[in-house]
Amino acid sequence: MLFDLPTPGFSFELLATLGNARAGILHTPRGDIPTPVFMPVGTLGTVKGMTADELRAEPIDAKIILGNTYHLYLRPGLEVMEHAGGLHKFAAWDRPILTDSGGFQVFSLAAINEIDDDGVTFRSHIDGSKHRLTPEVSIHIQKVLGSDIMMCFDECPPGDAPEAKQEEALARTTAWAKRCRAAPRGPGQSLFGIVQGGIDGARRLRHMAEITKLDFDGHALGGLAVGEKIEETYRILDEVAHVLPAERPRYLMGVGTPADLERGIQAGIDMFDCVMPTRNARNGYLFTEGQRVNIPNAANRLDLGPIDPTCPCSTCRTHSRAYLRHLYVAKEILYARLATLHNLTFYARHVRRLRERILAEGTRA
Amino acid sequence: MLFDLPTPGFSFELLATLGNARAGILHTPRGDIPTPVFMPVGTLGTVKGMTADELRAEPIDAKIILGNTYHLYLRPGLEVMEHAGGLHKFAAWDRPILTDSGGFQVFSLAAINEIDDDGVTFRSHIDGSKHRLTPEVSIHIQKVLGSDIMMCFDECPPGDAPEAKQEEALARTTAWAKRCRAAPRGPGQSLFGIVQGGIDGARRLRHMAEITKLDFDGHALGGLAVGEKIEETYRILDEVAHVLPAERPRYLMGVGTPADLERGIQAGIDMFDCVMPTRNARNGYLFTEGQRVNIPNAANRLDLGPIDPTCPCSTCRTHSRAYLRHLYVAKEILYARLATLHNLTFYARHVRRLRERILAEGTRA
Questions:
Q1: Using the beta-carbon criterion (under 8 Å), do A51 and B90 form an inter-chain contact?
Q2: What is the distance between the alpha carbons of residues A22 and A45, in angstroms, rounded to a whole number?
């Protein structure tokens, strides 16, 4: 079943369902994105350590990557991005890009000076310079970045904020979502709404009703996996993901482990992003079909086998754990490349396998 | 003219000469090395930031790389290298490798405890642990590393050491060269002698006579470009390089800038290594046909052109100076990769062009 999305050129094709899990294709002007999909995070216009060619090639074959509005706004800044003609040209990436709104980073990285109904004034985590983000400014930055999928600017209160604060943030996020929806975007730029509400299921559903009324191209669950117990995350996922409109893509922001992705897909999520595969790689943690490999471990010192004998990535086909451990210990740049290539391959294959299972065992939509 | 070298499987083919400059091919069991050649430095079993595939592919197409005996002996250490079956297998590099003897690093990086006629006792620059290198130990380590070209263990006194000290070091280097020559090597492992003597031409020629008597597969000039004025380096090169036996390859150790390479080739040198292209790349200095580019420079902020429009490397074909500057400023790993790929391409093309000129304008040998 093919569903046109509000933004011209975008449509969502539902191919099969298995329980709440779905397999589909998000069609965009810059290319098709088979879902469920894992989106590698390219914070500063680069998925750390990787070239665009490596991301595009098998076995990663990333159909979409993320860019971070907050980071790119601070560095290289809007003048450079505008001059370069947007993030695709700047980073030589011709497939779709999703940009977040900057909200999460403002609330987690920057020093907040003031939050009011209009927006947020904050100081840069790099040089302390003062900046202001509003829904209109966030959409404008994302317009300049030229992302294919924009996200609404939302307020992200701490999970342990008092009840009244949570409600205030929720109301503000809805008001800001309306302003984001009304702000001008470029052609080929879709916009997703974000459902907040913490780990209170009723509040989530109430906010979802407000957000889904606004006719976004897709819907995201924000504010999950931000410190709450994983059982709480899973409970909320099970309660709310399948209630999100079935004819639009559903995106779980900033999640998570391979197990989290599987749970999210079972709950009905279509899109994921997380720094875990890339950051863990650089920190020495490598994913495998079996146990996670901690590469600095002395056990790898003389191990001439690959990280994962079942993995088709060039790191596993070419290099031993002993070599990778040596590069890690010697702080060699090559380590980060080889490790990131492997972990992104693991995530890509993991999600593709789950998608194949839905297609094979599910009901044709 | 084809000259067999003392080690079975090795021969040196002289194709053409142009003044003192020579174009040839060093034939080795692991492959042919067209000379003059620039050898990228792979200190710790990796040319920093590069994969073996990138080094082997056009436009770099490195026919031989270096490994550093001192560094690899300390990390990952001989047990790992022996277990892995040598550096080629460990680093997945199937073309020739030249290893230095560790001498230069012991005298420049380590804390020396004692130098005597037998060898050198020193403390590791990493953890202060105590070690001892002798000619026999150096050759043994290089045997374990499995390099195709080994270097003799030599004493490298400071350039400003007193006369008596220089003479003592020279005599020791000759004595150690004899011991290196006598030490057991593996099949397919050749050995180069090193001519020292600082910037005193007569002393250089006297030492050359001692070293060239020992029937090495090739000869190196050591202890140049170690702090003396560049005119002194060039003067010594002009005085001694062409006197080295013509039927064996000549190697100028640790040199240098693109201009130095050109001068060395004119003087009759066949082989070069230097960290300059790789280290400069990481530090923001990029070589071009015109002026050297200092990538952090604000002038590159909005420059959408490549580092060098005449360069065929994928960095120049894909990315702008503005993007590279952004990656550099943001300390992104990808910067080091892209910059190193470019600088190594520049060096490879530079030397290949000089070789082509000798073949085109020179006299058939």
A1: no
A2: 30
Spatial contact of B289 and B345, defined as CB atoms under 8 Å apart: no
B299 touches chain A (CB under 8 A): no
* Cα A354 from Cα A331, distance rounded (Å): 35
Q: Hey, are the CB atoms on A51 and B332 less than 8 Å from each other?
A: no
pLDDT digits (tens, 9 = 90+) for A64-101: 999 999 999 999 999 999 999 999 999 999 999 999 99
β-strands B130-133, B120-123 pairing: antiparallel
Q: Residues 42..101 of A with a Cβ closer than 8 Å to B: which? A: 44-46, 48-53, 75-76, 79-80, 83-84, 90-92
CB atoms near residue A331 (< 10 Å): 9
Q: Which of A53, A273, A303, A308 is catalytic?
A: A273
**Helix/strand/coil (H/E/C) assignment for every residue in chain B:** CEEECCCCCCEEEEEEEECCEEEEEEEECCEEEEECEEECECCCCCCCCCCHHHHHCCCCCCCCEEECHHHHHHHHHHHHHHHHCCHHHHHCCCCCEEECCCHHHHHHCCEEEEECCCCEEEECCCCCCEEEECHHHHHHHHHHHCCCEEECCCCCCCCCCCHHHHHHHHHHHHHHHHHHHHCCCCCCCEEEEEECCCCCHHHHHHHHHHHHCCCCCEEEECCCCCCCCHHHHHHHHHHHHHHCCCCCCEEECCCCCHHHHHHHHHHCCCEEECCHHHHHHHCCEECCCCCCEECCCHHHCCCCCCCCCCCCCHHHHHCCHHHHHHHHHCCCHHHHHHHHHHHHHHHHHHHHHHHHHHHHHCEEC
DSSP assignment of A44-64: TSS-TT--HHHHHSTTT--S-
State the pLDDT confidence band at A31, using cuts at 50, 70 and 90. Answer: very high
Bridge-partner residues for A285, per DSSP? A294
* A319–B48 C-beta distance less than 8 A: no
Q: What is the mean pLDDT of chain B?
A: 96
Determine, for residues A337 and B337 on separate chains, whether the beta-carbon distance falls below 8 Å: yes
Give the A:B interface size as CB pairs under 8 Å: 110
On whether the pTM is more than 0.95, the answer is yes
Residue A319 near chain B (CB below 8 Å):
yes
Is the ipTM of this structure higher than 0.95?
yes
Q: What is the pLDDT of residues A198-235, one digit of tens each?
A: 999 999 999 999 999 999 999 999 999 888 999 999 99
The gap from C-alpha A44 to its chain's centroid, in whole angstroms, comes to 14
Contact (CB<8Å) A337/B49 = yes
* CB-closest option in B46, B80, B323 to A322: B80
Mutate to test the interface with B, among A46, A87, A279, A325 (most CBs of B within 10 A): A46
Mean pLDDT for chain A overall: 96
Q: How confident is the model at residue A322 (pLDDT cuts 50, 70, 90)?
A: very high
Cα B219 from chain centroid (whole Å): 13
